[in-house]
UniProtKB/TrEMBL annotation, chain A:
Its main location: membrane. NCBIfam families: 2A0604s01, transloc_SecF. Keywords: Cell membrane, Membrane, Protein transport, Translocation, Transmembrane, Transmembrane helix, Transport. HAMAP family: SecF_B. The keyword Transferase does not apply. It is a multi-pass membrane protein. Forms a complex with SecD. Part of the essential Sec protein translocation apparatus which comprises SecA, SecYEG and auxiliary proteins SecDF-YajC and YidC. The keyword Transit peptide does not apply. Residues 117-301 form the Protein export membrane protein SecD/SecF C-terminal domain. Belongs to the SecD/SecF family. SecF subfamily. It comes from the Bacteria. This is Protein-export membrane protein SecF.
Automatic annotation (TrEMBL), chain B:
Part of the Sec protein translocase complex. Interacts with the SecYEG preprotein conducting channel. SecDF uses the proton motive force (PMF) to complete protein translocation after the ATP-dependent function of SecA. This is Protein translocase subunit SecD. Residues 185-242 form the Protein translocase subunit SecDF P1 domain. The gene is secD. It comes from Pseudosulfitobacter koreensis. PANTHER family: PROTEIN TRANSLOCASE SUBUNIT SECD, PROTEIN-EXPORT MEMBRANE PROTEIN SEC. It is a multi-pass membrane protein. Residues 259-370 form the SecDF P1 head subdomain domain. It is found in: Cell membrane.
Length: 322, 553
């Protein structure tokens, strides 16, 4: 007996309430964007500059004690969080201390780090500093720029690729879905105030890639079906295409999620934020490829009367394979 | 029908075998690593029986490239340094002052007396006694300019002189500053590299980044502070004429002179001429040694030009003191007793043996031409790295197992084929990573886990398509063929788009992000290869053997 996530034949009407779905997505995007504007992201030192110190001791972490030890140094905003992870040993108590960038210093000051380490060692004798990372304000400013640029470039490159392989309506649909995914991911990071660092940008771009993967598979089928059923309305053809690829969409999402959840639970706390972004992205990406990308495509319509030219709805580049 | 030619089959299996072979050393990581280290040691001359034995742990005819572990997995230190290229302009201009002075002196009748004025770093302002002699003075100064030796700067000279009233302003030309920047960076890179090599650590990464930055990653080192101590010390050695010795820290100095403290005696300062007679750059060798009283010292030797200048200077200035200046501190200021022709000398001071050893190393490696400021530093403890590897391993294995089970449950025998392809896929990724010498980082492991999830996608696309084609009941062979044919366009489009994002990540990203982009990108390549060729070949081979009347996917 085979495991089936869904029946072999599905005939779900995905566009029956397309205005509702598009409305919900638009609302979510607005909420996500609003949260980003109002609350802002909890930027890690990669983007904001400053120092993080990861400490480990056999004694339980007492944030108050840590804070009191560091406070006299007058280093401005300090955040101390205890880190929990199922993989830790019994007496492995880990905390993250974050210190803001000091003044307008371009470079990283070793003195500050030494002072903090000294102060903590005085109150917690067996404390060890597992990792120390400092980023100067100059670099962090550049990192945020390149990161934003990377996301924009990736979306633009994809826009062009899909436009070449399909039609501009497909490209717009796909990009609408991508923007939707990126905004929702940034939104969830700002809403939950999860630390947003360089690795999250990598996750964002992967989400872009993944969501696109899904969208393209649906579009590819739509292109095929548009050639096959020249006279059926676009809405029906799109709906059929989604239904036909639904089994694959879910299979891939589930296998990817299985892998990601394993990493989330067992992969350690260092990459947990990163994996969380990916899990969220896979879910949102799967949703958006059906309810955003295809809906936008439906809304924009596709030019189907190519009688003067050869073939269905593809461009001349579309026939190089398949 | 389902036909794949013999040579094609051989090629596909050959490629898979090659990938597996390249990946194999990673399965015996520690052993191969020790063996590689021993082989390297033997190559540089340490041909001991122990090294031979360790080298023999891994057969030499086998591939021995390993995946490099990134800092976040192995532990170590990471620094991003910015080279203060402007420092060099200042030194350059200071060095040219004696030359200009000596060139103008014979023309005293035309230009009058020549005096150096205070000026911004990187420019020289010179007052001449006779403003009317400005044209002649400029001519002489410009005559000292040398052509710039670069492609872009062809035709221009290194210094630009302009005159206003009785003041000549000399600066470096734009072409020369560019050339200087380039040279400074190359020199800094080289010196940083040599200093780190002197300490003898494994596989350091020393890379240029952008116009004026150096990225330094050293695995296995205790902390970024330690690394900074190794590369950050300038060890700028100069021999300068001493003007006077004083105990007043606020002594005012004239242009072209500076006040530097003594290294040993607190409260003692020397006023010295800024332009050095000889510098550490003229050194060819420096060795730790002992002076005649048995105190630790450093012996040094100049190259021929340095030796000549030092010899001439000592011959002309017998009886006057000169200062041995190290990083703007006077180590000692002996009085020249006699002409020193041989070009070698000894630095004595209150050193201990370790200090002299370090000083000799630093002097040999040469001084950094400009100061480094550190924009970014990261220390990752080895235990955090080990924990991450452990966690990554477990997570990958669990993810792997879950996906394998899920695929078999969903697609039966075909799922099993996909699983074999998946295992091959992971091996291929490791094989590729090792052969291109890529670095595996923690996000890189995440990239592999993601590939595990996504690699099945291409197979899923094909299998779902075969299922559909089976419904139109054209027989299993035709269904398999059509399944592959029709799924190909979706597979390619989907993977090319993901690949585009991986490439952008690689180009724009740095450090760990780049590691992720590499594994993701390679994962896409190998998963398309395994899905389109390897699984198909397995299915075709199975089909030929069994010839089933009907298949269930």
């Amino acid at each position: 007996m085979r495991l089936k996530l869904i029946p072999q034949e599905t005939n779900v009407d995905f566009f029956g309430r397309w205005k509702l779905w598009l409305g919900i997505s638009a609302l979510m995007v607005v909420i996500g964007f609003g949260s980003f504007l109002l609350q802002g992201l909890n930027f890690g030192i990669d983007f904001r500059g400053g120092t993080t110190i990861r400490t480990q001791s056999t004694q339980p972490v007492d944030i108050g004690v840590y804070r009191d030890a560091i406070a006299p140094l007058g280093l401005g905003d300090i955040s101390i969080t205890e880190v929990f992870d199922p993989s830790f040993e019994e007496d492995q108590n880990v905390a993250m201390v974050r210190i803001q960038a000091q003044g307008d210093e371009e470079a990283v000051t070793t003195e500050t780090i030494e002072a903090v380490e000294g102060a903590l060692s005085a109150v917690v004798p067996d404390i060890r500093f597992i990792s120390v990372e400092s980023v100067g304000p100059k670099v962090s400013g550049e990192l945020i720029q390149t990161a934003a640029l990377a996301v924009i470039l990736a979306i633009a490159a994809v826009l062009v690729y899909i436009w070449l392989r399909f039609e501009w309506q497909f490209a717009l649909g796909a990009v609408a879905a991508l923007v939707h995914d990126v905004v929702l991911t940034i939104g969830v990071f700002s809403e939950l105030q999860i630390r947003f660092d360089l690795a999250i940008i990598a996750a964002l771009l992967t989400i872009v890639g993944y969501s696109l993967n899904d969208t393209v598979v649906v579009f590819d089928r739509a292109r095929e079906n548009l050639r096959k059923y020249k006279n059926r309305p676009l809405k029906e053809v799109l709906n059929l295409s989604i239904n036909e690829t639904l089994s694959r969409t879910l299979m891939t999402s589930v296998t990817t999620l299985i892998a990601l959840i394993a990493l989330f639970v067992l992969g350690g706390d260092v990459i947990r934020g990163f994996v969380f972004a990916m899990i969220w992205g896979v879910i949102v990406g799967t949703y958006s490829s059906v309810f955003v990308a295809s809906t936008v495509l439906l809304y924009l319509g596709v030019k189907r009367d190519w009688t003067k030219q050869d073939g269905g709805s593809g461009t001349q580049f579309a026939n190089i394979d398949a | 029908m389902l036909q794949i030619g013999f040579w094609k089959r051989l090629f596909i299996w050959g490629l898979v075998a090659l990938g597996l072979l390249l990946a194999l050393p990673n399965a015996f990581y520690t052993r191969v690593e020790q063996s590689n280290d021993a082989v390297a040691a033997i190559e540089i001359g340490a041909d001991t029986p122990e090294n031979q034995a360790v080298a023999g742990q891994w057969p030499s005819w086998m591939p021995s490239s390993l995946v490099n572990l990134g800092l976040d997995l192995r532990g170590g230190a990471h620094l991003l340094a910015e080279v203060q290229v402007e420092d060099v302009y200042e030194t350059r201009m200071q060095a040219s002052w004696p030359e200009i002075r000596d060139a103008l002196r014979p023309e005293r009748d035309a230009v009058g007396t020549v005096r150096l004025l205070d000026s911004d770093p990187g420019t020289l302002r010179i007052r001449i006694g006779e403003a009317s002699g400005m044209a002649r003075a400029l001519e002489i100064v410009r005559g000292l300019a040398r052509p710039v030796q670069t492609l872009t700067g062809a035709g221009s000279t290194d210094i630009v002189a302009s005159g206003q009233g009785d003041v000549i302003t000399v600066t470096l030309s734009d072409a020369e500053t560019q050339a200087t920047d380039e040279r400074t960076l190359q020199q800094s890179l080289e010196i940083v590299r040599r200093r780190i090599d002197e300490v003898g650590t494994r596989e350091p990464t020393i890379q240029r980044q952008g116009a004026d930055r150096i990225l330094i990653q050293v695995p296995g080192i205790g902390s970024a502070a330690e690394l900074k101590a190794i590369i950050g010390t300038t060890a700028q050695l100069t021999f300068n004429p001493v003007i006077t010795r004083t105990t007043d820290a606020n002594t005012s100095v004239g242009p072209g002179e500076k006040l530097v403290p003594s290294l040993d005696e607190s409260g003692v300062f020397y006023v010295i001429e800024t332009a050095a007679v000889v510098t550490g750059e003229d050194l060819v060798d420096a060795q730790p040694a002992f002076d005649q009283n048995g105190g630790p010292a450093v012996n040094f030797r100049f190259d021929s030009t340095g030796a000549r200048r030092f010899g001439d200077y000592t011959a002309e200035n017998i009886g006057s003191p000169f200062a041995i200046v190290l990083d703007d501190e006077v180590v000692s200021a002996p009085v020249i007793q006699s002409h020193i022709p041989g070009g070698s000398g000894i630095i004595t001071g209150r050193f201990d043996v370790e200090e002299t050893t370090n000083l000799a190393v630093l002097l040999r490696a040469g001084a950094l031409p400009a100061e480094l400021t550190f924009l970014e530093e990261r220390t990752i403890g080895p235990e955090l790295g080990a924990d991450s590897i452990e966690a990554g391993k477990i997570a990958t294995m669990v993810a792997f197992a879950a996906v394998l089970v899920f695929m078999v449950l969903s697609y039966g025998l075909f799922g099993l084929f996909a699983n074999i392809a998946l295992i091959i896929n992971i091996a291929l990724i490791f094989g590729l990573l090792s052969s291109i010498g890529a670095t595996l980082t923690l996000p890189g492991i995440a990239g592999i886990v993601l590939t595990v999830g996504m690699a099945v996608d291409a197979n899923v696309l094909v299998f779902e398509r075969i299922r559909e084609e089976l419904k139109s009941a054209r027989g299993p062979a035709r269904a398999i063929e059509l399944g592959y044919e029709k799924a190909l366009s979706a597979i390619l489009d989907a993977n090319i788009t993901t690949f585009i994002t991986a490439v952008i990540l690689f180009v724009m990203g740095s450090g760990p992000v780049r590691g992720f982009a590499i594994t993701l990108g390679l994962g896409i390549l190998t998963s398309v290869f395994t899905a389109v060729f390897v699984t198909r070949l397995m299915i075709v081979m199975w089909y030929e053997r069994r010839r089933p009347k009907q298949i269930e996917v």
